Hints:
single chain; mainly beta; three-stranded antiparallel sheet; 0% helix
Amino acid sequence: xxxxxxxxxxxxxxxxxxxxxxxxxxxxxxxxxxxxxxxxxxxxxxxxxxxxxxxxxxxxxxxxxxxxx
Length: 69
């Protein structure tokens, strides 16, 4: 990410995952969750918490298959 811009923890980061345990954040792991598991920190973190280590997930590239003529 660009230096100088403030980044926030969310599921767009390659290190962020939904918590594996249910109910760790009081939401019973529905989509209103406020906790994420950070694989870089190896702990639960608050969603939308400022983060200097955010790395955006990269989209998987589709491989082109040769067309059959």
